[in-house]
């Protein structure tokens, strides 16, 4: 395998994890790191700390990771595209849909691999779940609901909970169902004293008829990352914190004890916690990015997909502002 020269810009909380994984990745060498402000986690080690994307590019790169704040994604991404560097940009693709479109166009025009770091797609529980849905283990899918709740992260300052966390759920839902969104209706609130929303409740419908529900906030003391897919044969529950996947099978055995039946439903079905391999999602994401650059496979989250997710996120915010159902343009 050829050794690819990789650069990293943005050395904050997520950047340090990217650096760790890159240094362990076969066929890739981390040759340059940059951050305009500082290196609080000592990511650079023996590498010089560069201060700009231009200095990073000058190091001679094949590929790069942009883990800068969302508001800088467009500027940094366009510079890397202009320099012919394949790039993985952290999610969301950009701060706004027009900015995202400019990134999509720039990488397409340059013939470069552009990817978005929607890491949940690489969670082993969700990867197994998607394959099981595709194999028909759930039969027809009726609903996908997600809950992504926890305390406020000090690392986020330039976007609200919809674009920072909610984009995870929008992306993984469309990916699991293999269908885009048709419409959304949302309500938000701001309780932490910041200018951006910190809680959202979204209901939606996909183009294939699956209904969706998303609860996302930065206000809960309890961290929760759950995806529930309900269908013809039962329900899968994926916990992406622990990468556990459980199948609740529709029952065929009637409950005969009336008082228990009132709590458990009309029948008893098997509950199976599935045994799955659990590689680190970030490593899997980087392997996919490396292999896409090498032309071996192409299962990254593309910039086009990242742009579609951002468009839905902006529709969620518009719905909350207007109090209306927002239909998503094709």
TrEMBL record:
Q: Any idea where the GFO/IDH/MocA-like oxidoreductase domain is?
A: 127-236
Q: Which residues form the Gfo/Idh/MocA-like oxidoreductase N-terminal domain?
A: 4-118
The UniProt entry, under SUPFAM superfamilies, shows: Glyceraldehyde-3-phosphate dehydrogenase-like, C-terminal domain, NAD(P)-binding Rossmann-fold domains
Q: Which Pfam families match?
A: GFO_IDH_MocA, GFO_IDH_MocA_C3
- Kindly state which keywords UniProt assigns to this record, in alphabetical order: NAD
Q: Which PANTHER family match?
A: BILIVERDIN REDUCTASE A
Q: What is this protein called?
A: Gfo/Idh/MocA family oxidoreductase
Whose protein is this, by species? Arthrobacter cryoconiti
């Amino acid at each position: 395998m050829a050794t690819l020269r990789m650069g990293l810009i943005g050395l904050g909380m997520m950047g340090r994890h990217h650096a760790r994984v890159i240094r362990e990745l076969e066929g890739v060498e981390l040759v340059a790191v940059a951050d305009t402000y500082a290196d609080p986690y000592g990511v650079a080690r023996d590498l010089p700390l560069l201060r700009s994307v231009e200095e990073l590019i000058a190091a001679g790169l094949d590929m790069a990771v942009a883990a800068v704040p969302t508001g800088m994604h467009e500027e940094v991404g366009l510079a890397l595209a202009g320099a012919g560097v394949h790039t993985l940009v952290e999610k969301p693709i950009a701060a706004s849909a027009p900015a995202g479109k400019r990134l999509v166009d720039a990488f397409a025009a340059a013939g470069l691999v552009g990817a978005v770091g929607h890491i949940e797609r690489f969670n082993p529980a969700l990867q197994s779940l998607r394959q099981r849905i595709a194999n028909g283990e759930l039969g027809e899918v009726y609903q996908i609901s997600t809950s992504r709740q926890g305390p406020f992260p000090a690392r986020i300052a330039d976007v609200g909970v919809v674009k920072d966390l909610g984009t995870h759920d929008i992306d993984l839902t469309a990916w699991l169902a293999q269908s885009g969104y048709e419409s959304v209706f949302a309500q938000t609130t701001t309780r932490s004293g910041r200018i951006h929303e910190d809680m959202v409740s979204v209901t939606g419908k996909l183009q294939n008829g699956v209904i969706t529900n998303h609860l996302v906030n930065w206000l809960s003391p309890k961290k929760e990352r759950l995806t529930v897919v309900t269908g013809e044969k039962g329900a899968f529950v994926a916990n992406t914190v622990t990468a556990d996947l459980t199948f609740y099978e529709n029952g065929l055995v009637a409950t005969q004890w009336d008082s228990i039946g009132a709590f458990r439903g009309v029948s008893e079905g098997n509950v199976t916690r599935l045994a799955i391999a659990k590689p680190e999602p970030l490593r899997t994401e980087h392997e996919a990015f490396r292999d896409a650059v090498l032309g071996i496979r192409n299962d990254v989250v593309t910039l086009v997909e990242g742009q579609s997710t951002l468009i839905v996120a902006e529709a969620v915010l518009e719905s909350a502002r207007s109090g209306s159902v927002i239909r998503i343009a094709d």
